[in-house]
Design brief:
The protein is α+β, with helices and mostly antiparallel strands. It has one helix and five strands. A hairpin with a 2-residue loop joins strand 1 and strand 2. The radius of gyration is 15 Å and the shape is globular.
């Protein structure tokens, strides 16, 4: 636990499963954007234990199913994580983004997560 970590303090848990929990993103990309976070303070995905990764995978599946059943406009998902400053990680506590997508929510979704480097989206 870190005194300065926002995921270790003042969290609003949405769901939990074993070693991980989810919360709604404070700055959502789309409606329903969730973060899946280990309870243990660990820096990034690569420092998560196998149990934490397995629990996170299962919680992602559970959340995906709940989101789809409650919102028929959802037609896809992005799942991603940022590891390190150069990858855009701003909170140094491992977390995985689950971002619901809807037809027409962006002009051209081709390339998906490749859009972190805009010139690489189309290939």
């Amino acid at each position: 636990m870190s005194d300065k970590c926002p995921f270790c303090n003042d969290i609003k848990i949405n769901e939990e499963l074993g070693s991980v929990f989810s919360m709604k993103d404070n700055y959502p990309v789309t409606k329903g954007h969730h973060l899946i976070i280990p309870f243990r303070h660990t820096e990034d995905y690569f420092s998560m234990t196998k149990t934490e990764r397995d629990d996170a995978t299962e919680l992602i599946r559970i959340l995906k199913n709940k989101l789809e059943s409650s919102d028929s406009t959802i037609t896809g998902f992005n799942i991603g994580m940022n590891s390190g400053d150069s990858a855009g990680q701003t909170v140094m506590h491992s977390h995985i983004h689950l971002i619901p997508r809807r037809d027409g929510d962006t002009e051209n979704p081709s390339g998906g997560v490749r859009g972190v480097i805009p010139d690489k989206m189309s290939y």
